[in-house]
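User: As part of a screening pipeline, I want to sanity-check one entry by hand. Below is the sequence and the SMILES for S-adenosylmethionine. Please return the complex as structure tokens so I can compare it with the automated output.
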Amino acid sequence: MNHSLSLQTKELSHKNTLDLVGFYNEATEDYAFWSKDFNMHFGYFVPWKTNPFKRDSMLNEMNRQVLNRLKLPLQGGLLADLGCGMGGTMHYALKQTSGLSAFGVTLSEFQLREGNKRLKNLQGTILQENFNRTSFCSNSFDGALAIESFCHSGHSKQSFKEAYRILKPGGSLVIADAFLKKDPEALCYGGKLSYEKLCNHWSLERLGHITKVAQELKDTGFSEVSVEDISFRVAPSVLHVPFAISGFILKKLFGSGALKKESLHNLKGSFYALLSGLHMKSFGYYLITCKK
Ligand SMILES: C[S@@+](CC[C@H](N)C(=O)[O-])C[C@H]1O[C@@H](n2cnc3c(N)ncnc32)[C@H](O)[C@@H]1O
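Assistant: Here is the complex for your manual check:
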């Protein structure tokens, strides 16, 4: 597995893939501060349903929204989580849907080891594989999801093609992520700065342009491509960032006293995510649903 992983990572266009792996190996445990359920993403706010002061209720609502759109078979079926982190979404899905089985892929061995411990006794397994070229058989999954993961490969066509290949005909792909509303060259000074810093600190290849991404999904063969701008649903959880960062730093300083360089990198990335989010004409958070 490790040999094949190193071959796969060589093929990734991201010049800093090894940085990405190192980043997630070292910084993943910090996410325990962001989410006790190890959701490594932003949340989805529903007025009167999710409590805007309780982060995990919004983060789990994002899981629910993504899963609802997948329309998995009633008896469960097989789910792929492409860029699964610690398996927070898989955990949520497997607890909610009886008869469901799931595979997740990540590049990080820390997430593989610790995530699989959390999935013990559930029908879910995390593999250390590249979502751009998995070992899964073609036409094998009822649904596939990618929450804040395809951005690491720049929302590349290769990721869409691979998702398409592993889905059964009729199966759905749901992507939840931030996208650009314009080409990077058209960003204003502040937008460009926060975008570059965001990509650098979170090891993102780039963010796709939402209109072009929708077209690329169609070109890949997906039908019924639906694009929902959910920026305002996501905003309440993004506003948690400054509080989470301050709390995390205080805890570290009064605890072990040490702040790892990867943790600092991650905190800066969160800050630039917040800054980017404020440029609402340039960035948006979207849910994309499409069908094979
Ligand atoms: C921000 S985390 C999101 C994790 C998870 N989707 C969640 O919402 O909790 C991004 C994840 O994408 C994974 N990832 C990035 N590039 C990948 C690739 N080429 N193949 C597999 N996993 C990848 C990382 O290892 C990490 O687990």
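Points to compare against the pipeline: The chain is about 45% helix and 20% strand. The longest helix spans residues 261-278.
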